[in-house]
Amino acid sequence: MTLMARQPKQVNTHLVFKGQCREAMTFYADLLGGEVEAMIPFSDTPVATEVPEESRDRIAHSVVNIRDRRLMGCDMNAECYTPPAGACVQLEYEEVEQAEQVFRQLSDGGTIQMPFEETFWAVRFGVVVDRFGIGWMINVGKPEMEINP
Known about the structure:
149 residues; 8 strands
């Protein structure tokens, strides 16, 4: 099998939330200049009658398109929800000011794990877990450290 035959059509990031998917994905679309392509509540799915009444307004599937990259998400029931761990959404910027603004907004109500500062590989880099429990890495790389595919 060739390399191309093994490659998926797309690689997307899927996030899970404990009831705040609509709020989080709307916030991300606004913050990152994306477009909400889908925001489907459980009440609009074939399993609507199987979902408890109090959960029918929660999101079964959402998609935010950011420069033809998709950030997807859904709400999980409290008993099934596990906070995300071991992964972050990584955002790459060219301008420090823009990256700093995004870092600041993601930090509001969240937890900074690594301050937004210079590193050996980046003009600025920081890690934050936002108020929705999602980890983010914000990077403005140094030109000499960039890897071009």
